[in-house]
Design goal:
One of its GO terms (biological process) is cell redox homeostasis. Pfam families: Thioredoxin (PF00085). The chain is of the alpha/beta class. It has four helices and five strands, in the order βαβαβαββα. It has a five-stranded mixed β-sheet with strand order 1-3-2-4-5. It is globular and about 30 Å long.
């Protein structure tokens, strides 16, 4: 896992005050699909370092943020831009499908 983690303590600075789009991967260690999507997100991050920032948020360790952003199933990915949720992606997907979902942010 190369994606940096964010927590309740750092979320505002890491995500809400960030310049440019930030994808937050809401995940948990026990979630098989989360583990499947993690290396795909790492690849997308390494291929687009100047376009998008990808962070991971463990829902078990940060239940307040999972509740605030209405995370009811994982993996759930939310792209934040200007402190607001710009798009939501639910479920594990292959790389090409994630890149299609993120196309507007990877231009």
């Amino acid at each position: 896992m190369t994606a940096k983690a964010t927590t309740s303590a750092t979320f505002e600075q890491d995500v809400l005050q960030a310049e440019g789009p930030v994808l937050v991967d809401f995940w948990a260690a026990w979630c098989g699909p989360c583990r499947m999507v993690s290396p795909i997100l790492d690849e997308i991050q390494s291929e687009n370092p100047d376009k998008i920032t990808i962070l991971k948020l463990n829902v078990d360790e940060n239940p307040d943020l999972a509740m605030k952003y209405q995370i009811t199933s994982i993996p759930a990915m939310k792209v934040f831009q200007g402190g607001e949720v710009a798009t939501t992606i639910i479920g594990a997907k292959p790389k090409f499908a994630l890149e299609q979902d993120l196309a507007e942010f990877l231009k």
